[in-house]
Every structure is written in structure tokens, then in C-alpha cells.
Write a structure and sequence with these properties.
Layout (H helix, E strand, L loop, with lengths): L1 H17 L6 H4 L2 H20 L1 H9 L6 H19 L1 H18 L6 H15 L8 H10 L3 H24 L20 H18 L5 H16 L8 H17 L3 H11 L3 H12 L1 H8 L6 H10 L9 H13 L4 H26 L1
Helix pairs in contact: 1-12, 3-8, 3-10, 3-11, 5-6, 5-7, 5-9, 6-7, 6-17, 7-9, 7-17, 7-18, 8-15, 8-16, 9-18, 10-11, 14-15, 14-16, 15-16
Length: 361
């Protein structure tokens, strides 16, 4: 993300040479999206530090009897949780957990494939809701869509993803396992903070539903987190917020250059999904969503394109780099095999979803 941050601000500074700073710059920034994104990151970071998500996973694994059940739980933990806690948090939480569990159950040979499927699951599961990933939150805000409308749009793709992941796992050889016993990392003394973060999360959902204003939610979140769990403020990914701001400035400036604007609109028009997918492979899907949103109003196509565009290359979704770093940290010798498995699986899934995008549209 630091590389993307640098690119965003280099582009912003170059565009500022062509369009000198003026009062219009302030209108470029989508403060609603930035505020809500900050709140969601704060809530997820705090809840994750408490081990809330790991506690739920521990309980699910207590009755696992075979390898199919184990892999389905590990993969669908990422798939389902990413809809609410974002793809990044799902992977940060459950990839290390999966590696630990598979090693404990003497299933080391399955680690690479399971983590690849977890990564695909997190990226595809997160596409279902407006808060599942940063590009959804931004495009949802820009589009003016209702929550129900967004869910209906992404439901067919989410169902398809669930079916493909399920089939991929159950086609593997089933092997018996001993019941796993894993000590929970969450202690009862954290109950108060768990309640606080649950309330803050509900507040974020009310903001997404356009019941509470973003400025109010942001102020309350900053105040509450600062006075109850201020260390959480140190682990928020501020580089993502700065990346958004850089791209907002670049997009705003480019939109004031008629020749460039007309040229890009001509390329994108009628090819929104494929353009979003292709650009995501090179610059990742969050920057692709930010850039393309300035030159087309086909919000549904952009939402679909940037979400399925998260499949493909290792940088198509920045969340995928989280899994890669965790795999390498668990064993450097796994790096080459992981990249091979990741690329093959992602290309196959991407081909299916591109075909589905044109069928569903």
C-alpha cells in the first residue's frame, strides 16, 4: 500500500502542475467516504486486537471431524466474515489461524492451497456488502444506491463464489481428523471493550444505511476510541486514507482537463467491466475504482468490475499481499509454490467471473 500511496501523490502533484491549486481542490475530497472508512478501520482494528474473531473461530473448530469440514470452516470464515469486517481484517485474522490449525492437525501439505482459497474467499466474500472492502464503500457512496439495491446487484456473484469455493474443497480427498482443542485468546475482562466496539460497529452500519451522518459517526468514534482504547488508533492504516486523498486530487484535476477527460471516457464507455478488471491487474482494484469513477457514471459495472478484478495477479487486490507476506513469514520455502497455486487458481476464478459478469448483466 505504501507504493500505491507514493504513486497516488506523485500523480496528484503532477496534475497540480497542470491545474494549479485553488478553492476547488477542497471539493475533490470525499470526506464522507474517508470518515466512514476511518471509523470502520478503527472498529475492526480494535475488535481484532481483542481477539473477538478468533474466539468465534475457536468455537467453530471444536467439532471438526474430517479435512473437508476443517478446510470449509477455515475458508468460509474468511468468506463470510469479510462481508462485515473487510477482506483485509479477515485475512490478517484467519490466515495465521489457519496455518496454526493445519500444522497442529498435521495437515501442513494443505497450508498453501487453503491460504490461496482463503484469499480468494475474502476478496469475493467482501464484494457482497458496501462495507466489505474500500472500493465498495467508495463506489456505494458515489452511486447513491440503497443498501438493498447493492446487495441485490452482488448477490448472484456471491452465490457463485460460495458454490465454486465449496466444490473446490469437497472435490479434494477427505481425511479423518482428531477433534481440535484450541485455547481462546479472548478473556472475559475484555467484555466491556467488546460491547463498546459492537456499539460503534452498529453506528457505522447506521451511517452506511444513511441514518446517521458520517461526521457524527467519525467524531463519536474518535472520542470513544481515544478515551477507552487509544492504542487502537496507532494500528489504523492511515496510508489507505492518504492514498484515497491523493487519488481524489488527481481525479479532480484530470476531470478539469477536457481533452484528457474525453479521451478516457471514450476508452471506458461501454467497456466498464473489462476496463475495471484490466486496470485492477496493474494498479489493484481500489485505485482502479478511484480513477475510473471520475470518468464514468456506470456505477454497477464499476462495482462488479473492480470486485472481480480483485482476482488475477498478486497485486489485483492489495489484501492478497497480506496472505503472501504471512505465508512467506511462516516458511520462505513456500513462496514459489504459493505464487504458482495463487496465480493458477485466481486466473481460473477470474475467467469464470468475467463470463458470469456478462451473463448476469
Amino acid at each position: 500500500m505504501n507504493i500505491v500511496l507514493i504513486i497516488a501523490w506523485v500523480l496528484a502533484l503532477i496534475s497540480a502542475i497542470v491545474v494549479p491549486p485553488d478553492s476547488a481542490y477542497l471539493s475533490y475530497i470525499d470526506f464522507h467516504t474517508l470518515g466512514l472508512l476511518f471509523c470502520l478501520m478503527a472498529v475492526m482494528a480494535g475488535a481484532n486486537r481483542l481477539g473477538v474473531f478468533r474466539q468465534a473461530a475457536d468455537r467453530l473448530l471444536t467439532k471438526v471431524k474430517n479435512s473437508h469440514q476443517l478446510e470449509l470452516i477455515l475458508v468460509f470464515l474468511c468468506f463470510i466474515s469479510s462481508m462485515l469486517i473487510t477482506n483485509d481484517v479477515a485475512l490478517i485474522t484467519f490466515v495465521p489461524f489457519a496455518i496454526q490449525v493445519l500444522e497442529m492437525s498435521d495437515r501442513r501439505e494443505s497450508i498453501i492451497l487453503v491460504v490461496v482459497l482463503q484469499t480468494i474467499a475474502a476478496n469475493l466474500g467482501s464484494m457482497f456488502t458496501p462495507i466489505g472492502n474500500p472500493q465498495n464503500l467508495y463506489l456505494y457512496s458515489k452511486s447513491g444506491m440503497g443498501v438493498g439495491e447493492f446487495l441485490v446487484l452482488m448477490l448472484p456473484y456471491t452465490v457463485l463464489a460460495a458454490v465454486l469455493l465449496f466444490v473446490t474443497i469437497v472435490l479434494r480427498k477427505k481425511q479423518p481428523l482428531h477433534t481440535l482443542q484450541i485455547a481462546s485468546e479472548v478473556s472475559f475482562k475484555n467484555y466491556r471493550k467488546q460491547v463498546i466496539y459492537a456499539v460503534l460497529f452498529v453506528q457505522c452500519l447506521l451511517c452506511v444505511a444513511q441514518i446517521l451522518p458520517a461526521w457524527f459517526v467519525t467524531i463519536v468514534t474518535v472520542f470513544v476510541v481515544f478515551f477507552t482504547d487509544r492504542d487502537t488508533l496507532k494500528v489504523i492504516d492511515y496510508s489507505l486514507l492518504l492514498t484515497f486523498a491523493g487519488f481524489f486530487i488527481f481525479i479532480g484535476n484530470m476531470g478539469r482537463i477536457p481533452a484528457f477527460c474525453d479521451f478516457l471516457k471514450g476508452i471506458i464507455s461501454g467497456n466498464e467491466i473489462l476496463t475495471a478488471v484490466a486496470s485492477s491487474q496493474v494498479i489493484s482494484n481500489v485505485p482502479a475504482a478511484l480513477l475510473l469513477s471520475g470518468f464514468t457514471q456506470k456505477w454497477e459495472a464499476l462495482i462488479v468490475g473492480t470486485n472481480i478484478g480483485g482476482l488475477g495477479t498478486l497485486i489485483a487486490s492489495m489484501a492478497s499481499l497480506i496472505s503472501y507476506r504471512l505465508i512467506v513469514a511462516s516458511g520462505p520455502s513456500r513462496k514459489g509454490k504459493y505464487i504458482l497455486y495463487f496465480t493458477i487458481a485466481n486466473i481460473l476464478f477470474l475467467m469464470v467471473f468475467i463470463l458470469a459478469a456478462f451473463m448476469f448483466s
